[in-house]
Structures are given as structure tokens and as C-alpha cells.
Amino acid sequence: MPGLRVRHIGLDAYVRQVLPQTAALWADGRDFETYVAQTIEIARSPYGRLHYRTAGLYDGGTMVASFKRYERIVHAGTRRLRGLGIGAVFTPPERRGRGYASAMLAGELDRARAGGCDLAYLFSDIHPQFYSALGFTAFPAREIRLRADGLPATRLNPARLEDRDWPGVRRCYDLGERRRPAGFTRSPLVWDWIRTRMRQAAETGGGQKTDLVLRRGRSIAAYVLGTRDPQRDAYVLDEFGFADDAAAETIPALLRAAAGDLRRIVGWLPPGGARELLPKGAVRKRRQAIFMAAPLSPAGGLLLRAFAESAKADPCWHAEHV
Questions:
Q1: Could you give the maximum distance between any two Cα atoms of the chain, in Å?
Q2: pLDDT by residue (tens digit) across 262-312?
Q3: Per-residue pLDDT tens over the stretch 171-224
Q4: Where would you tag: which of 223, 226, 260, 273 has the fewest CB atoms within 10 A of its CB?
Q5: Secondary structure string (H, E, C) spanning 104-172
């Protein structure tokens, strides 16, 4: 479209111009002040300052659409590829139906491709077909529900996760990713970003953050991250990890310990290498946060095929959701 241009939106301008319009969609029960404060916290985090931007499509001096962009490294086997995450795509109601969002994202994908990115990805809450028209493929998005009392009640002596445990958690995660054909890598900055988002969600979701670890001497043998939500009578799982096969066998009992007196364990269907540790449970299609990706290079195309080959598991953990 002639005269349209994508440009960076500074944080202050994004707070003034965009957040008042998007709060109804994405505040998720938070009051507006909290929604703003947590958005600012993410943007000013060490990860945010380097790898997170807000941008908009402008028609002259008027912003007609906006989005957030994230940079992540994704692995395909031993290869490390550059990924572009897209989120919070928004067009003001009075400007919808004119193709602004399509033009904005198409231009961003072209720039990412020219800049050496291998794939773009997002989590679609509504209208996945809109992104399909731009070249994105939707991958299986499922939820699992387990009866907590159906898991083994093995005595493990788990402990609450402490700050000193995070390097051990990261090690378990990295070992798990080595077993998978494709997935997201996490640098220390990414871990800090994920921890911030988990804490924010726990503060606003009505539950109690409950992260447990199983220690083996000075090391971490296994961990589970999630939230106890009494209103749902469920432990809501973000992810789990383990250091070796022996530790993997403790995961069901560790999840039961995290659930405590709650009846269910719920969450996204875990990715390959982790899904196999849990009983079948009740699995159903997830209608929100559908993982979608578009290849921007031949290597990105191979990565998407690797994701597609894991049909019995989901492509990533809930903790990757942006």
C-alpha cells in the first residue's frame, strides 16, 4: 500500500497509544495500571532491551496497526537458527477490514527474511486462518488433564525452587532439548525473561506459583514449574525437566506432590521426550495460543518439518508462550 511504513514505537508512545486499546483483549483480569506496569517491566528487562520491540504501521503520521516482535534462537538438531516471534497484532476497530495488519506483517516477514531470520512464529488466540494466508502453518495445540490421585505417590522429599536452583533447572532443560529434534534454546537472558513472565501471570491469575525441585546432592535432578489454582481445583503446569532417565521416572510423583490436595493436573500437552512420561489422560484440542510458524529460509523449512514429525506431542512448552 503506497504511503504506508512500519516503524518502531517507543515504549512511552506504545503505553499511551496502544495499551488503552488492547487492555480489553489482553489484560486478562489485571487492572490497567498493572497491565501497563508489567508491559514496561518486560520491555525494560535485560532480554527486552536487546530482543524485544514494539512497532506499528503508519499511514503518514497516523498509526493504523501495531505488533510486538521478539528474537529467539531455535535449534534443529545441532543447528542454531534465528527465530522472529510476533505477538499482540492489533488494528484499531475503526481501521479494520482495510488490509493494514496483513501489509504490516508481510513487510515485517520480508525484512526478517532479508536480515537472515530462518523462521517466524506466533501463538494465535483468534483467527489462525488470517496467519495461514501469510504463510504460517498451524501445529497441533492440545491440553492434557490428569487425575492427580492417578499418579504414583512415591515419597520424594521435593523442595520449593529457590534462586540458587535456577542454573540446575536450566541444565535439565538443556539436556531435554538435546533429546528433541527441534525446539527453543534458552540463554540466561531468556530464562530471566521467562521467570519474569511466570511471576507476572501468577500474580494476576488467582493462583499460587508452585515450583518444585528434586535435589540430588548439590545438583537438580528434576523440576516442575506451575501454579496451584484452587478455583479450578487444579495444578496448572508450565513445564518440567529432568537430568537423566532415573530422574525422569520421578516426574509423575513430583507432579502429584505439586498438586497436593488439588484434584487435577492440567496444562499444554508436553513436547516430545516429555509427553511419554505421563499417562494418556484426557487430551483435547486447544482453541487458544495455537503455535504457528512460517519458514523464512531453507533451514527454517527443515525446522518446521521437524516440528511436524512430533505429531504425538506439542511443539513447545507453555513457558514459551508470548
A1: 66
A2: 999 999 999 999 999 999 889 999 988 999 999 999 999 999 998 888 778
A3: 999 999 998 889 999 999 999 999 999 888 755 466 889 999 999 999 999 999
A4: 260
A5: HHHHHHHHHHHCCCCEEEEEECCCHHHHHCCCCEECCCEEEEEEHHHCCCCCCCCEECCHHHHHHHHHH
Backbone angles phi, psi at 278, to 5 degrees: -105, 150
- Establish whether domains 4-141+287-320 and 143-285 are of one fold: yes
Residues in the chain: 322
- Output the pLDDT for position 201: 76
Cβ density class 62-94: b for 16+ within 10 Å, e for less: ebbbbbbbbbbebbbeeeebbbbbbbbbbbbee
Residue ranges per structural domain of the chain? 4-141+287-320, 143-285
Whole-prediction pTM value? 0.93
- The angle formed by the CA atoms of residues 144, 149 and 151, to the nearest 5 degrees, is 65
Three-state DSSP at 291 gives strand
Which overall architecture, per CATH, does domain 143-285 show? 3-Layer(aba) Sandwich (3.40)
Residue 154 has a pLDDT of 87
Q: Which three cell numbers stand for residue 220?
A: 537438580
Say how far apart CA 83 and CA 297 lie, in whole Å. 11
- The Cα–Cα gap between 17 and 8 comes to 13
Q: Which CATH number fits domain 4-141+287-320: 2.102.10.10, 3.30.160.140, 3.40.630.30, 3.60.90.10?
A: 3.40.630.30
d(CA 128, CA 138): 7
Closest among 253, 139, 260, 273 to 208, alpha carbons compared: 260
Please give the grid coordinates belonging to residue 49. 532491551
Q: How is residue 187 written as a grid cell?
A: 540463554
